[in-house]
User: Which sequence fits this backbone?
């Protein structure tokens, strides 16, 4: 059982490495952000497996990560709007669905 | 098999750190830094330092991400120059490497320290979690000063406001579509986050958790509610806000002075009342930490349309 859990943890870490490759490659900012969210989800998975291996108290850490890692995505979406405080859903309503946030454009050097 | 897992984790931590520092592009560096916090949290979990892992997960993967992404968005809107200056990289790397080598040498050269056994003194502290015992009993001085440093940091951020904006609401004017995904998220997360944050503070006395970790989770909840336009940003002049900010350090300081009044040393806790005293101090600290961290992330008072 322990061996099997170790293998699962290693496999999860391997998927995280795949997500990191997407963070590196991009090309758009949204790609990088979504890959970071995948790392967050995978990290929760790794922590749950570690909890089974080491100590169930680790579930608290996994829970904290699950609750808060979505915050970065909210912050990202906010930062993409013209005034840095809005909501793309409002934008798409204003522009009749013709809204193209900066996040969809290629990242470039910034 | 454990070794393979640890080696893979170490390789990932080093790789992510290198990518955050060496890669081109500010946004990519920000994202790598967010993921770095997450891997470091897993590293602390592997080392058995669960309280540190919890703090790193909450701060590193949660709040720092929002802060850095907002800063990057602001730089872009200001059309600031975000091209990196490449020249100091090598010297900085050499200096960093030298410090790491010196620290490593010191670790091996110095005799192993003989720390006092916390486990032996634990029954007198009133709590079962050795980390909480050290933070709020053995080394309460550190924690008291840290809570004041946090307050000073917030004052430093508030100083950045223009004089004319001083009484404007803090941070950007967040707005969201009332029936949209963000507003839904803003109503969905807070009940869970509130119970979890309070649980962390309560459980911190005996197992993983504590005032700082619980306060960070609560700060995240406050931020989400503000970003979803469900909670109005406060103003610097609000008395309730100021009271919440000084509540933690104030209660902590008063409890220390009360000990002096009872003929004990400053900040020492009598074993008979230690548990309840620690819980009261932690509850007050949690409120102050939660408000301070949330306000640190949203930034100083600003008027988006001056002269209106």
Assistant:
């Amino acid at each position: 059982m322990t061996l099997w859990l170790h293998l699962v943890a290693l496999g999860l870490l391997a998927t995280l490495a795949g997500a990191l490759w997407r963070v590196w490659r991009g090309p758009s900012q949204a790609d990088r952000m979504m890959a970071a969210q995948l790392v967050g989800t995978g990290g929760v998975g790794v922590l749950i497996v570690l909890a089974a291996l080491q100590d169930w108290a680790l579930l608290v850490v996994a829970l904290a990560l699950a609750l808060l890692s979505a915050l970065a995505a909210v912050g990202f979406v906010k930062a993409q709007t013209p005034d840095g405080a809005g909501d793309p859903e409002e934008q798409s309503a204003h522009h009749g669905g013709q809204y193209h946030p900066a996040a969809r454009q290629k990242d470039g050097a910034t | 098999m454990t070794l393979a897992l640890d080696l893979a984790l170490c390789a990932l931590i080093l790789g992510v750190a290198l990518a955050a520092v060496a890669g081109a592009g500010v946004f990519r560096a920000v994202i790598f830094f967010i993921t770095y916090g997450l891997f470091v949290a897993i590293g602390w979990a592997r080392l058995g330092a669960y309280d540190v892992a919890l703090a790193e997960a909450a701060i590193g993967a949660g709040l720092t991400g929002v802060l850095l992404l907002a800063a990057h968005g602001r730089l872009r809107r200001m059309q600031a120059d975000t091209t990196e200056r490449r020249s100091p990289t090598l010297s900085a790397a050499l200096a960093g490497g030298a410090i790491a080598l010196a620290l490593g040498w010191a670790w091996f050269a110095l005799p192993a320290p003989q720390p006092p056994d916390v486990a032996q003194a634990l029954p007198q502290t009133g709590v079962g979690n050795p980390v909480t015992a050290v933070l709020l009993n053995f080394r309460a001085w550190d924690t008291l000063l840290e809570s004041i440093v946090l307050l000073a940091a917030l004052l430093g951020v508030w100083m950045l406001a223009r004089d004319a904006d001083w009484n404007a609401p803090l941070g950007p004017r967040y707005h969201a579509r009332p029936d949209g995904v963000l507003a839904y998220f803003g109503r969905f997360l807070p009940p869970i986050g509130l119970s979890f944050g309070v649980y962390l503070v309560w459980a911190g006395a005996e197992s993983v958790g504590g005032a700082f970790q619980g306060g960070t989770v609560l700060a995240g909840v406050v931020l989400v509610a503000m970003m979803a336009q469900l909670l109005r940003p406060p103003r610097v002049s609000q008395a309730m806000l100021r009271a919440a900010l000084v509540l933690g350090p104030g209660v902590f300081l008063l409890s220390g002075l009360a000990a002096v009044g009872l003929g004990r040393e400053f900040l020492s806790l009598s074993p008979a009342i230690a548990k309840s005293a620690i819980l009261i101090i932690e509850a007050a600290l949690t409120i102050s930490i939660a408000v301070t961290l949330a306000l640190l992330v949203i930034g100083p008072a600003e008027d988006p349309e001056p002269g209106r």
